[in-house]
Amino acid sequence: MKPFRLGLLINPLAGLGGSVGLKGSDGVAEEALAKGAEPKAHLRMQQALEVVLPYRNRIQVITASGCMGEDLARKMGFDTHVVYQHHSNVDYANESSATQSISKSMDQASVSTTHQDTCNAVEALMNETLDLLLFAGGDGTARDVYSVVDDATVVLGVPAGVKIHSGVYGITPKASGLVVKMLLDGELVSLMSADVMDIDETAFRQGTVKAKRFGEMLVPAEPRYVQAVKMGGKEVDELVLADIAADVIESMEDEIYIMGSGSTVAAIMDDLYLANTLLGVDVIQDKQLIASDVTAQQLLDITQDKPTKLVITLIGGQGHVLGRGNQQLSPALIKQLGKDNILIVATKTKLKALDGRPLIVDSGDPELDKALTGYYKVITGYHDYVMYQVANPDLVE
């Protein structure tokens, strides 16, 4: 039987900025590493590939060298063919000191890559006959893939970035793997064109979202597993937001409150007359701001052994409450808080826009994600609540 030819590509720097509050990784990889960020993209791709391990003898992985795919594919026992050698596998004599420091700081050998490596790797992969190109990264990676990939190649992203506005990604890493499994099982999988979106990260770090559509790529049309394009724009129903804010503020006690990102949470901060990091995470106690735009480690330090609640909202159109733009909310923190101390706030308009699809947690820790499933009381107004399901991100096949 002819092997399934799986193009595999990992952006090893994807998502580095999230846990340390940098809102992205474009151009700030060295700073993120200096702040203690750890590369996770290879782990996200591993979660996707674990789904198809039983099919290992039917898959040939076509990939780039080292940390861009080869290391993981060989470690997992896949038949692996390398078609691109990235620049960090050559002499560093001509590399900048910054690039060298990034490479030496990583917990894997030789993981210094650039967006040009991604483009070059995709170009090399286009010379191969692929059944699917599976890549791990964020919106910047999707843009790089889009800039090179041809119109006939089917692609699918494994979410590993800080921000995921594009509609070319699985809703979780395992969901991406399940789509590959469907193809291997010979199921009828339709194809569709999905938007490649990205934002200006410099403006993003200053609290302004400027999203732009760059084009489309061909992806499997499987709505259970492939996410929708993020709905942009601020909530316009100020009265509803004021009602939500009033409910949360009325119930506040002396404990610490972690205030997640997003316009719905921002409305609560506005009603408290507190400065808010729209695209970051803040901490308040006694209705006073005690820390702004905090990192994952700072959150652990601030809340250790102290009663704490987390106030979060969902991403419109997608339904994610964890794992998209709020990687500061680490698995360690969520385990420390406990499920009962998570307050979800959302307008009914946002919930109805999901068309019955559940909320999603994608923390990076599959066992934690399973533990967080179930029905939650979502605050939708003043003393107004609805029960809404958080789904198991592993999804029942």
From TrEMBL:
Keyword rRNA processing: no
UniProt GO MF annotations: kinase activity
Protein name: ATP-NAD kinase family protein
Pfam family, one: NAD_kinase_C
Keyword Nucleus: no
InterPro entries named in the record: AcoX-like, NADK, Put_ATP-NAD_kin
Annotated transmembrane regions: none
Keywords recorded for this protein, A-Z: Kinase, Transferase
Source organism of this protein record: Shewanella aestuarii
